[in-house]
Batch of 4 targets.
Target 1
Amino acid sequence: MYKSLIIQMFFLFFSFIHVSDIKAEEQSHDVLVNVEISEWLPYAYQENGEFKGFAYQIARDVFTRAGIAYEFRIKPWARVYDLGLKKENYLICGVGRTPKREKLFNWIGPVAKNIDIYFYKLKSSPIEINNLEEVRKYVVGVERDAYTHDFMVISGFDEAGYHHVSKTDQLLKMLLAGRFELFLLEESRVLKEAEKLSLDPALFEKAYFAFNVTDYMAFSKMTSPALADKVRKAYQELYSEGKISLH
């Protein structure tokens, strides 16, 4: 009788574990990941109601390979970055991997090649920049909470030395309006934003090299490590198969 009871308890215990494992597996399939990014031409943008861009395509292919449901959105960068710091099951589709951010996110893989960031000025401006110290004479436009903003802070610029904007296209418009003398951005975004605004890109000219950076897909730290590992594995598989192209 005692032996029979022990055997029954043994099978009940392992049946419970098996059911728990099944439920955990079912729950993992039920996860919906919020994949978000700011408008980033030509890497992530919306055209006629359809998402497009190199970074968007990578995210789409990776989540399809991983078999994980996701919802893609484009929002202002400051909002995306803030949610990336505190929301569960949240992935930023393109966030620059910098020393300041290294421990803030669970990194998946690059969505773009290493890019160079420059200080830009109006071509008609007589400004000449030969070193970073000379930049301090002017007000610089930066996107709020972007790595360009971080660069200004890390480089020791006073808050009066830079002006925040919430959207990249505002950098071009406000430089033309004389709100500041320089802005920080990569060349491809200057060209695409000028095109979007129907501006001649020749109006803008590189004044001085600032730094380079690589943009990654990255999960919030509140996201399950198992979920991040599954997405990372899918990324690595696609990359090794030559199905991820970085631009």
Target 2
Amino acid sequence: MPSENVTADPVQLRYTLMSDDLLDGFVAQTRRISRPWYLRWLSTLLTAAVIAVVFVSSALSGDMAAGPLIGMAVFFVVVVLAAAGFSVLLRRVSNGSWIYRLSVRQIMRGNPGLSQPMQATLTEGGIHVRSATGESTTLWAQYPLHVETDRSFVLLASQRRGGSMLVLPKRGLDAADSAPLRSLLATHSRRLS
């Protein structure tokens, strides 16, 4: 650990978590998860191949007429490929944020304590979050990764989708400078870019 990354002073954030903050956390978590390109297409191609093999083998065995079976196999392959293309188009156009809006609304509605004022204190020993409904202390080992967005710092428990995360909005910093928080995060977690 370089000495410039170590800070003795605790960093405090005071904020009220909003739906947009949680949405920012979900989108940041999803964008930073690297997946090999072939995993996205593997299930689609395997499904289309299995359907085609089943229909063609049925046609060749004489169970059904070959013409309708081959036509149905082609139809299913085209539908599967069109659905995959539409999915890719929607992801590129919307950057994934629309997927999480409904989930964020449900989470905020189901957990009214999330929309109460909170105070997060980050020290060398860990992260302490306090609100009107309770408080928790977490060691840095719980959040070994972090992502910085324009709006917040998102602490991640893992690179897996759906892993635990903690969203720290930048507007909650006492001072306008977020350098002490950045240096504390650089000391205790790895930044995903």
Target 3
Amino acid sequence: MTLEGLYQDLLNADEGAYAAIEEEIFASWDKSRSPAMDLLLQRGADALLDGNPQAAVEHYTALIDHAPQFAGGYFGRASAYYTLGLTGPALDDIAQVLRLDPRHFGAIEGLAVIMEDLARVQDALELYEMILAINPQSVPTKDAIARLQLQLEGQAL
């Protein structure tokens, strides 16, 4: 199934089906259609898991150099940059992911997390609400919205 079809299915999914569709979307995001590029993506992910975000940046940068239209490289590198405390470069890569795939709810979530870190709670809340427009059954997103709404209510007192 195409990514477009998966997004449509996700929009119409019930609580029991959304997680499986999400998994299909995650798998689709990780497919570049090139074994060499998929290997670079995997090496970047492995480096992040091994606690070596600088190596991850290098793998993801090589991937981006060879496949600049593949959002997965930018998404992975944004995660590595964020881990290194490089918020500006992480934001730049998230922006590129969203230019390539405006419904990439993983990138939107990453942006929401950064907004929370920057104490921009209202912006984070709006981003989580954007995710619900794409993935209406997402339990973690609903939980994040409830948490931020409580935080905002507490600030108003």
Target 4
Amino acid sequence: MTAKLSTGATYAGPFFQITSETTIEELTPLWTGWGDRWRWRGWTYWGPSQSTLTHYSGRVLANLTGADGQMRCHFRLMRPSAGMAGGGQGRCQLPGGTIIDATFPPA
């Protein structure tokens, strides 16, 4: 996934659609670059635990890398059976802690 912000910053990296078959081990790349900070600033379900899978079931999580660090995102899909192509909306947290709303239209 690639995200381009109005500031010109670009972030890219993996995204994961969480299903009932998803395991914590499959999600390991989501916490790359966050160190001990994966629990800070209102992202209580951002970490390698069963509560993450339960909370985000049917949604998409992403960990994107930019020139200034990591941006993490969670999205609620408009049509989960269509995946990201079905469109959705969510929130992303920038490296400095700023949270932004994110939307993407159906393809």
